[in-house]
Structures are given as structure tokens and as C-alpha cells.
Design a protein that fits this description.
285 residues, alpha+beta, Thiol Ester Dehydrase, Chain A, eight-stranded antiparallel β-sheet, four-stranded antiparallel β-sheet, 18 strands, binds 2-oxoglutaric acid
């Protein structure tokens, strides 16, 4: 499947805003419908810090085929700083976000990387792919990746009853800070687009964003990629998948386990996952 060619203007937008909107990353609506079916079971899982939630390529043939054969990693690599010979890029998690239908409200502002873990030298970059239509489902503060430290210093609040020192960003504080930082960062500029199935947003690990729930159901998947120094690089790891340098064999060094089924039975064995992966590969030629 071809991936969109992103030029210097796109890269500059990504560097300045910390966000880049890519319409029609996957134009094939039949594939998007298939993916929606395959992700459905996982959308019902409660969000938790568990492999079954964050490493869906371990058990979901659809996710695996998308990330191995689809345009996701290539597109992220084309805006990320080019890796040197002794550097690698790993896909480290890929949470699936399914919400609604339900009341209309915003989740908390946050950035995907832990503070200081995404740098110009070793960036973390996320891609959020709308698997169904996702009207105004995710919002970004443009330029906020450049003022992460200020945001955390002024707006992080310890959440009572949560784990020690767990903080959340205060939305009112971010609004006020946005006003004060508007010169020269213009942090009050926001992006909240009407995304269709197959559209994607690529964003820096430090960029502030928040998801919105709405009266309509919507599904998205958000693989995250980190550039690392090569050494020591394990030959095969289950928890992070090597996407640069890429080889399908390296990707497939991880055995497929189980994955969500299309019918009512929740799980099917490995061989059917392989078949679906092949279907995806055929669809791209
Ligand atoms: O889709 C959502 O509502 C949440 C997305 C998000 O916050 C993320 O990918 O980090």
C-alpha cells in the first residue's frame, strides 16, 4: 500500500506545531471496515497498564497487518529525524481507543511521553488513526511541545487518591497559560478536526492533546514510535517492535497468539491471523 509523500513543508509544520494532519492515510474504506471489526473486541477492554491493552500486535492480526504492511510506520518515519546508522526506531505501544455513544465531554490534557523522555535527539512520535469517522474527537494545542516544562510547572496538580505523585493537568490553568504564552508560541492555537475513517494525525510525544467523547461511537488506534541508540538492541522483543531498519521477518519474530474474531466467538487461533495478514498484504498490490 503506498504511503503519502510528506515533503519539507509537512516536516516544518510538524516541527513548528508538533502536529501534522494527514488526510486519507488509508483511502481504502473496505480495509478500514475490516480493521474496525478486528479491533472491536479490544475496544471493550478497560484501559489498563497491561500488555493485552498496549501491545495489541501480540494478539490482534488486524493491528499486526496494519503496522507491518500498512503505511503507518513509513509515514511517521518520514517526519521523524532520520535515524543514523547506529540508531533504530521501535513501535512501543498502540492503544486502541473506542468510545461512545455517550455524553459529550473532553478527557484530560496530556502528552504521550513522560516529561524529558522525548527529545530532539531521541524523539517519540505518535500517530492517531481514525478507524471510523471521528468528528472532532481529538484536540491539540499547537506548539505546546516546545513549552512542556512550563506547562508541567504551572498546571500539573496532584490527583488525590491516585498513586503517589500522580499528577493531572488542570484545564483552566492551560487555558490561562495559553493566553500568556501566546507570544511568541501562540499556544492558544488549537486543532480539532473533523476526521473521516482513514485520516490520521501525527504528533510529537510532548504535544498536549485530549480526546473527546461524543454522541457517536468512534474507534481509533494510536501506535507510538521512539528513536533509540542501537546498542544494546535485542534481536527480538515482544514488547517493542523494530520498524527501522525494517524487515517483515524481524517483525514476525514474535509469534502470533490470539486475536479478536469477526463473529461472536471472541478469539481465534494463530493460523487465521496469518490468513488475515496475507489478505492485507494482497490488498496493497
Ligand atoms: O482517542 C482518545 O480519546 C485518546 C487519544 C489519546 O489521548 C492518545 O492517543 O494519547
Amino acid at each position: 500500500m503506498p504511503h503519502p509523500i510528506l515533503d519539507e513543508t509537512h516536516k516544518r509544520t510538524f516541527e513548528n506545531d508538533g502536529v501534522l494532519l494527514v488526510h486519507n492515510l488509508i483511502p481504502d474504506q473496505v480495509l478500514m471496515k475490516d480493521l474496525e471489526y478486528l479491533l472491536r473486541e479490544h475496544g471493550r477492554m478497560p484501559f489498563e497498564d497491561a500488555e493485552t491493552n498496549q501491545k495489541p500486535w501480540l494478539y490482534n492480526g488486524g493491528v499486526r497487518a496494519l503496522c507491518r504492511d500498512g503505511p503507518v510506520a513509513k509515514t511517521v518515519l518520514s517526519v521523524m529525524r532520520s535515524p543514523l546508522d547506529d540508531e533504530v526506531v521501535m513501535m512501543e505501544e498502540a492503544p486502541i481507543w473506542e468510545f461512545g455513544p455517550g455524553p459529550h465531554f473532553a478527557h484530560s490534557w496530556h502528552a504521550d511521553s513522560r516529561q524529558g523522555h522525548s527529545t530532539a535527539e531521541f524523539p517519540l512520535v505518535s500517530l492517531w488513526l481514525a478507524v471510523t469517522d471521528a468528528p472532532y474527537a481529538i484536540e491539540f494545542i499547537l506548539g505546546s511541545h516546545k513549552v512542556r516544562e512550563e506547562v508541567e510547572t504551572f498546571c500539573a496538580r496532584v490527583v488525590p487518591g491516585e498513586k503517589k505523585n500522580f499528577t493531572e493537568l488542570d484545564a483552566n490553568c492551560i487555558d490561562r497559560l495559553g493566553g500568556r504564552l501566546s507570544q511568541p508560541m501562540n499556544m492558544s492555537r488549537r486543532l480539532r478536526a473533523n476526521l473521516k475513517a482513514g485520516d490520521a494525525v501525527i504528533f510529537h510525544g510532548e504535544t498536549l492533546h485530549r480526546g473527546w467523547r461524543s454522541r457517536n461511537r468512534r474507534v481509533a488506534i494510536s501506535p507510538r514510535f521512539q528513536l533509540h541508540h542501537r546498542s544494546p538492541m535485542p534481536a527480538c522483543t515482544w514488547k517493542a517492535v523494530l520498524v527501522h531498519p525494517f524487515s517483515a521477518e524481524t517483525f514476525d519474530c514474535i509469534p502470533w497468539q490470539v486475536f479478536a474474531a469477526r463473529d461472536n466467538s471472541p478469539w481465534l487461533p494463530v493460523s487465521v491471523g496469518r490468513l488475515l495478514g496475507k489478505m492485507w498484504s494482497l490488498a496493497k498490490v
